[in-house]
């Protein structure tokens, strides 16, 4: 009887091992992966802040189109949620993958810098887009829009929505550590101080790229501060959260929401009038342009003295300083035109 | 005490070693399979470099092994890691010299661990509920202290703690982790303290009746968890050279998954450091290999979940066979 048990157990253990081995092989073979690169084609690693946002899906779409034109292979990977450590880990992994160029949108300007420097020391060409890292860690930054122009557009939109922008306003952002959003906040405030002296931004809250959190902080704030005239949003997810909160409180038409918005996310709110206007650059173009910067870096033709970078169907993207390139003017979305944007 | 240390330990050791062999076999097969199917992945440099990614969760997993063996659980570890980091960063920003801030951080880690232990031990509340509460408490504390901002002005010497390579390939934290693994193994297997930790998970009453202060024992176990969380926090803070409240969000999951996959039963009384280490390696290298192959990081959580289910299933089956 005892012997019987022993045999059974070792047999079952063997089955388990065999099962696990088979399972691993199957899983590896069956999972959707990148067909590993041809050694001769340059491999570009592109890292978004996180993947759970249609904005970054649109970036990827543009990057894939550009890679096709340039004959590059693309690895596109980012953390599922905003997570600096995970993003650093991905940079490290891409160094091991021997990418030829890295194109990064950073969650934190300093956290990514050491990893980016490590990449550069191994001969990888590093550039950033959307959200920059410390200049020591990269060669060039692709700015999606002039921060000042963006801030002006947002302040003007809010003023239009509230008959001149007099009173108290709430601003909802993603986090206080995101370099581009901080630059817009500063730009909105300094422009409003001159142009709309009665526009008071009473509170600035962070939604942490989380829809539920963005909604709840807006709900709570508007309940506690019923005199608020409008909500300025400078993050695509915060825009949806704030609009949801305004609708839930029945304040549509009374407390307008305006600011940064991704058309696919905010389309219903723009059409219903909760969001009066939204502004953004075209993320497909941004992803597309970023790859052309990598291309110029790999070919050794990136030169600020030349003043521009050739970027396929976008024409020439201009250098605005020695290490910053500008994508182009922002696009304003309204009830009338929002259906023509599919990102 | 004799009832625990006699046949029970013999049986436990036998079951544990067969599980460890199974895990080791799985790990070898996994690395070999990844090596075959993912060109360029299997290199000595690469295997060593990946350790930078999992050492922080590895340190937490060592402490978690002790906690789970006592029949407890600590869901607050990732929040505590963030809190310690924020305490160090923002006290340094406020003017404290960095070494002093680090001591303050370690104190915070141990203190919060002891707080968990004290509530569990003296109020007799279930660790699941207690640490679920402190998970929110510590994370909330980190947000309050940092005001949702990040501190990133660390001096160069600090960033070498988690960013230095010995001979350009061996991450400096790897030998430290190896020593701590051996230390944890010795404490658990070779000391009376270790035997009591097992005893606590197997039969708390028996330990109590043999004249051992159960409350002190629990305090030590959760305090140790806090100390390891502080250590992990310093390494991670140094590695990414920034402190922010949303660090290590959700890290408790892979930590618990590594421990459970390693054969530690959540009901307490059994588990080994070798098992935890293998669980950690299996989980970490599988994720790394798949991501290296170009499979998006979105799969990471799915894989962790799948292996956790697998671990629980194997643990349960092993338990039944033994009876």
Main attributes?
heterodimer, A: 343 residues, alpha/beta, Rossmann fold, 2 domains, eight-stranded mixed β-sheet, 14 strands, 45% helix, B: 323 residues, mainly alpha, ABC transporter involved in vitamin B12 uptake, BtuC, two-stranded antiparallel sheet, 13 helices, 2 strands, globular
What does this structure look like?
The complex is a heterodimer of chains A (343) and B (323). Chain A contains ten helices and 14 strands. Chain A is an alpha/beta fold. Chain A folds into two domains: 148 residues, Response regulator (Rossmann fold); 134 residues, Response regulator (Rossmann fold, 3-Layer(aba) Sandwich), CATH 3.40.50.2300. By secondary structure, chain B is mainly alpha-helical. Chain B is 76% helix and 1% strand. Chain B is built from 13 helices and two strands. In chain B, strands 1-2 form a two-stranded antiparallel ribbon. In chain B, strand 1 and strand 2 form a beta hairpin. In chain B, helix 3 packs across helix 10, helix 4 packs antiparallel against helix 5 and helix 4 packs antiparallel against helix 10. The N terminus of chain B is likely disordered.
